[in-house]
Amino acid sequence: MKKICILENDDLAPEITPVYKGYAAMFVRLFQDAGAADWQFDVFYTPAQQYPASFDAYDAVVLTGSKADSFSDEPWVVELRRRVSGLLDQKKKLLGICFGHQLIALCMGAKVGRAPQGWGVGRMAYAWQIDSMPSAPDNKQMALLVSHQDQVLELPRDATLLASNAHCPVAAYAVGEQVFCVQGHPEFVEDYSAFLMGKRRERLGEELYTRGVDSLQQGHDGLDVARMMIAFVEGDSVRRAA
Fold first, then answer.
1. What are phi and psi of 94, to 5 degrees?
2. What are the pLDDT digits (tens) for 190-240?
3. If both were cysteines, with which of 31, 104, 149, 187 could 36 make a disulfide (CB 3.0 to 4.6 Å apart)?
């Protein structure tokens, strides 16, 4: 049995909370669906400065997405960066998703900021760079549901690039046996992605909104990415591509 700490970095809109509960709940469902039936989860809501007294008992720490900027000066984000920097120094296993992916990269000294290409929404396909991970796609392609205007702008030092495309060159990366991060949201389902785009329809513009909603019909590989994360936590390292 693995003990997992989920640092929940945002809450859901009130009108959708009864359906999806929260980002942490989405991850618990995802990992259980992907085969981690015996994992134990503890959830801490970081915007309220909630953290465990110690991370020592946890096999891995998951950082969820957030509408906040990972480079923000908001006190809770500053504190989260301090905590994550400490976890990196302690060699704790980290899984980062979207905001979490960006914040971990930032703590490792990489550049993070607004995507020059603008918003990424809906389904996004990436070229998968290595084949040494369990559940890695045979066809060298991987797709996830996304919702972001920030992204990692350079690969963190000592990291292995896992996935990329023209819109998001650093879409996933790993650092040895310690860090595994993805820009996309393996925990999202199509209805939730459509809900987010609906809330931001005016900001996105009609063309991008329509294209994003239409893309949801093509399916995604969130479950396979979750299986990779499970294998990573349970001890399978990421080897550099030859």
1. -125, 135
2. 999 999 999 999 999 999 999 999 999 999 999 999 999 999 999 855 543
3. 31
